[in-house]
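Please decode residue identities from the backbone states below.
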């Protein structure tokens, strides 16, 4: 559903208004592509968390080895050090290598494709679907439902 605006101060700013030639279907498709990339961004964040948590656990093993030795369990200290400390998380890979492979193989190509699609189909404009969704959902005239950041809705009345 195309969102129409009554004047230059109404609705999204110019960076968030769809080009006239853009169909509802294209705006929805670009919104779905953007949402998929945002989900990938979240997955990537979890991958970095995995990387950092695994590294932190590996460094904590130093303390476990030291404490096992201090408690007289030298065989266990040696076993932890030999079998787990510094171990690959999958054959041949530490977590930094998983992050690098994910970025090179999946994340960067996906982000580049999404940017190219926006550039070619929507003149590089981002979040058109969300901007139009905001217009459909906001209450016109309500001071907390203005169309743009820093804008005061001229139709807002005091006390409402």
């Amino acid at each position: 559903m195309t969102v129409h605006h009554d004047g230059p101060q109404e609705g999204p700013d110019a960076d968030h208004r769809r080009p006239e030639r853009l169909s509802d279907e294209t705006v929805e498709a670009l919104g779905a592509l953007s949402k998929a990339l945002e989900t990938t961004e979240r997955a990537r964040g979890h991958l970095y968390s995995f990387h950092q948590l695994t590294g932190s656990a590996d460094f904590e093993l130093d303390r476990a080895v030291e404490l096992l030795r201090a408690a007289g369990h030298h065989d266990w200290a040696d076993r932890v050090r030999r079998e787990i400390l510094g171990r690959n998380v999958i054959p041949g890979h530490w977590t930094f290598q998983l992050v690098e492979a994910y970025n090179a193989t999946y994340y960067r190509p996906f982000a580049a494709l999404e940017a190219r699609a926006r550039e070619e189909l929507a003149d590089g404009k981002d979040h058109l679907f969300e901007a139009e969704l905001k217009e459909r959902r906001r209450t016109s005239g309500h001071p907390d439902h203005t169309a743009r950041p820093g804008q005061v809705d001229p139709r807002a009345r005091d006390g409402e």
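Observation: Residues 24-70 form the longest helix (47 residues).
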